[in-house]
């Protein structure tokens, strides 16, 4: 049996003077899962994604990544997408997409080729030579997705990736995320407060006051 990519057992996270972000969370993410983590602002859904990504350590319980066969901080294991499409202003879109690969030591020509393939996959192949300030918000978010795709991760974590976008653009971004997760064979977890986004994924987890209240499968 293949180990889950991420498993939380009794996971808790407390900040500062007793502020509880997560409390006794039990869950797992397996290869190929597509999950929406639902809940209002401050419910703990972003904290859960940060735990999955290894960005913060739980203060109680246990988190394991046995199925990743490596560190969750490796972009070839886990790809991160946030609500603000963070691109380096001085670099072209293609250079931004290839950046993690060049940092990892991949030759520039090979990294650029992987970057172009990724931009094509997310539907913005024509924007490789553009600067970030020359593209729209939706196009910038696609470029960020391409940057993740170029690394070919096994788990994609997206934290409110559509919150700053209009409804039509948001729908296209979710379609792109679902398609690339299928193409890569990667699990996808999206934190969102948007019911339309949640309804697009096969499973929905409801988080309230730092607790995982329910896990529903879309039939």
Automatic annotation (TrEMBL):
It holds the Pfam family ABC_tran. It comes from the Bacteria. GO terms for cellular component: plasma membrane. Residues 6-217 form the ABC transporter domain. Coiled coil: none annotated. InterPro entries: AAA+_ATPase, ABC_transporter-like_ATP-bd, ABC_transporter-like_CS, ABC_transpr_LolD-like, P-loop_NTPase. The keyword Zinc does not apply. GO terms for molecular function: ATP binding; ATP hydrolysis activity; transmembrane transporter activity. Keywords: ATP-binding, Nucleotide-binding. PANTHER family: ABC TRANSPORTER RELATED, IMPORT ATP-BINDING PROTEIN. This is ATP-binding cassette domain-containing protein. The lineage of its organism: Bacteria, Bacillati, Actinomycetota, Actinomycetes, Cryptosporangiales.
């Amino acid at each position: 049996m293949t180990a889950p990519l991420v498993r939380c057992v009794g996971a808790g996270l407390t900040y500062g003077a007793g502020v509880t972000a997560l409390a006794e969370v039990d869950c797992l993410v397996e290869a190929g899962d597509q999950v929406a983590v639902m809940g209002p602002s401050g419910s703990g859904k972003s904290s859960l994604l940060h735990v999955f990504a290894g960005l913060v350590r739980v203060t109680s319980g246990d988190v394991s990544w046995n199925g990743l066969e490596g560190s969750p901080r490796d972009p070839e294991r886990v790809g991160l997408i946030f609500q603000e499409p963070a691109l380096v202003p001085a670099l072209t879109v293609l250079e931004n997409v290839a950046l993690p690969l060049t940092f990892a030591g991949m030759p520039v020509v090979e990294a650029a080729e992987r970057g172009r393939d990724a931009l094509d996959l997310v539907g913005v192949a024509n924007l490789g030579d553009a600067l970030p300030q020359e593209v729209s918000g939706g196009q910038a978010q696609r470029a960020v997705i391409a940057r993740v795709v170029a690394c070919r991760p096994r788990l994609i974590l997206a934290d409110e990736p559509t919150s700053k976008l209009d409804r039509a653009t948001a729908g296209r971004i979710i379609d792109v995320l679902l398609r690339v997760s299928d193409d890569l064979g990667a699990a996808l977890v999206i934190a969102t407060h948007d019911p339309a986004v949640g309804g697009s994924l096969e499973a929905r987890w409801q988080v309230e006051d730092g607790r995982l209240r329910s896990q529903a499968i879309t039939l």
